[in-house]
Amino acid sequence: MIYKYEECDLFCVPSSYYLVQCISADFAMGAGIAVQFNKHFNVRENLKRRYGNVIAEWDGSWTKGFCVQDGRVFNLVTKRNYFHKPTEETMRNALFDLREQKSVVLSTMMTGIADWQQTALHSLRRTQHRQIALQSIIL
Length: 139
Description:
By secondary structure, the chain is α/β, with parallel strands linked by helices. The protein has helices at 33-41, 43-51, 88-96, 116-127, and strands spanning 2-5, 18-24, 66-70, 73-79, 103-106, 135-138.
């Protein structure tokens, strides 16, 4: 697994890279970097149209976490509602869904929590035992 830190415009990376953002199962996406994802890719409407009410399928254990793809955007669903915080377990479960992807871009604004880098990197390292091979650029 290769980690690389670069400072650049997330939306100007080569099209061979997939972009990653963390979202809630309610597809609120009204703040933070999600607003830019919507501006560039219309992610919110695409996901609502394609997946409907994902929140109804979220179990009461709060340990779920999964990834839904919309074009070249991987949306890590790491919490039930926009006002919740992701956990390491939901992050790990969602990142596990990226195991087949080799080139992804993660933003420093990805989760909306201050220690996102430690949580994401720790989750990636823990899931590496399951043979995830990511070449990640973290912006």
